[in-house]
Amino acid sequence: xAPVLEARNLVRDYHVGGSxxxxxxxxxxVRNISFSLEKGKTLAIVGESGSGKSTLARxxxxxxxxxxxxxxxxxxxxxxxxxxxxxxxxKVQIVFQNPYGSLNPRQKIGDVLMEPLLLNTDMPAPQxxxxxxxMLLKVGLQAExxxxxxxxxxxxxxxxxxxxxxxxLQPSLLVLDEPVSALDxxxxxxxxxxxxxxxxxxxLTYVFISxxxxxxxxxxxxxxxxxxxxxxxxxxxxxxxxxxxxxYTQALFxxxxxxxxxxxxxxxxxxxxxxxx
Length: 277
Description:
Elements (H helix, E strand, L loop, with lengths): L4 E12 L8 E13 L4 E5 L6 H8 L7 E6 L2 E3 L7 H6 E4 L13 H12 L4 H14 L16 H13 L5 E5 L7 H18 L3 E5 L2 H7 L2 E6 L2 E7 H6 L4 H8 L6 H16 L1
Parallel strand pairs: 3-8, 3-9, 6-7, 7-8
Antiparallel strand pairs: 1-2, 1-4, 4-5, 9-10
């Protein structure tokens, strides 16, 4: 069986225009990225701001075209320049960091959920409503929420709505771009558990983009570390977290505070010792 998603030497360059005092230059945002992702698995892409994560996400979600290289979905090459068909658009969906910004404040939640079905299927109105209600309940919200507006929900509830909208078309691939970074820690855990449950139930395939290694450690099967547009390390979650090889990966992990009890005690002891000097 072909992978759900395969990238072969993806490149994305941007030309920055010149001025009266100098010529333009080329910015290499993504350089020679290759990976494959099997159905039902989660690939986490990590790196600091400016590493190329969001640019890669735009290519994977068919928003931008790569400058070079090949992108395949279910074994079939995809070229955005030739247009994105309705069938192909249904295969890949995205959940953004800010759920409120991705929801129309003038639309009721029921209409938000039914809109993808209206645009991408021939489903009649009663079925669209039934499907939207089913998804609303599936993500942990209630039937009475169907006719409410986005401003009436908390951040975590809005993210649940965004997830419901993304999976309502039963996509082959779901790209999650920092989906929990704007949420409180307790709400983050709830959303991550929801994503894990939905993946198990529907066999969803995730590309999970994050800078939070604790989140990545919880949800990922494989991890790709990006630095200045390149994939500097790729491997299983267990391998990368137990024995990172690339110096950048090691530095990234070392800069991440550990939240286990012993690490917290050690930090408090060092702080107390420094204060006593």
